[in-house]
Amino acid sequence: xxxxxxxxxxxxxxxxxxxxxxxxxxxxxxxxxxxxxxxxxxxxxxxxxxxxxxxxxxxxxxxxxxxxxxxxxxxxxxxxxxxxxxxxxxxxxxxxxxxxxxxxxxxxxxxxxxxxxxxxxxxxxxxxxxxxxxxxxxxxxxxxxxxxxxxxxxxxxxxxxxxxxxxxxxxxxxxxxxxxxxxxxxxxxxxxxxxxxxxxxxxxxxxxxxxxxxxxxxxxxxxxxxxxxxxxxxxxxxxxxxxxxxxxxxxxxxxxxxxxxxxxxxxxxxxxxxxxxxxxxxxxxxxxxxxxxxxxxxxxxxxxxxxxxxxxxxxxxxxxxxxxxxxxxxxxxxxxxxxxxxxxxxxxxxxxxxxxxxxxxxxxxxxxxxxxxxxxxxxxxxxxxxxxxxxxxxxxxxxxxxxxxxxx
Length: 408
Hints:
Elements: E1 2-6, E2 12-17, E3 23-30, H1 44-51, H2 61-70, E4 74-79, E5 84-91, H3 95-108, H4 113-132, H5 134-146, H6 160-163, H7 168-178, E6 184-190, H8 194-204, E7 226-231, E8 236-245, H9 253-265, H10 270-278, E9 284-291, E10 296-305, H11 309-326, H12 330-346, H13 351-364, H14 371-379, H15 383-394, E11 399-404
Parallel strand pairs: 2-6, 7-11
Antiparallel strand pairs: 1-2, 3-5, 3-6, 4-5, 8-10, 8-11, 9-10
């Protein structure tokens, strides 16, 4: 059972007790992501995520790592377009220590100038690594095509230019804007005790927001069709195609996920069977859904040798056109719903996945559905709902991104 307690300062503590496990997963979820950055701030949310691991007033970066290694625990973080999460997984009797270290990082990071300069180079290497990988770069460029005038289209990592401007002052100013109590969720799952919850409240339940705190606002950006092509000396060409879709709060979200499974979400999907199994045009071909609070995207990715790119592209388009004109089969939808239920339940078999699900749900929805409620909603997915989504999504001219040799 998921319980939510709101501290006097507005921080929400979400807990799910799983008494038969011996681990604890805890995450600090912040409603701050790259889509809320100003153009000159692009990449600062991700840079802050890195800097919180680089030492506090009482712990060096090495000591933070050694403390978790000593207890056999894991600590990490990630930044997305809408939120940031700092998380740890440890044995249950180390829960309070893990929370204490996370709180020290959260409140007492020193942002030392030497560490800033070193980590700036680390992130720059991360950017270069992404640009060097065409299968990553093709998706990054696709988002620039889809949302050229909105922060949603900018890279989470930022750029070399914006990265060079970040200082301890700009970091603290950004954190004062978005790291305020009401924008924070502490999610904990596992063998949770009342003492651990009291410890979390003691550490996070008393700090106050400053006058600089800013409520995040969704921009409801407009999708743009278009085409990006990059000539590059590679053995394979990389193709990404995206259509505008629905967001996380849309009532037909499960229908969208089921539709994605049918078109390209698994090995029995239309695209996998047609592009790979029937025609042998690609080793990698799949589709996926990206859903944010207000908007979403339905994206298809494939890679093939440079000579077969146009054939693969045509095959993808033919497959999508057939879905649009002929619809899907009852058996396909039935199978997709069972796949969806299976992946949902199996995906909750670790304390870390429970912690993540609860943290995201609290930040985005402010409510928590039971497993049975979610399965019941999946069962309500119908042919009519999927047919409406097919028409609304595939009737729009897509955005296209291509990286390869000899591409046009």
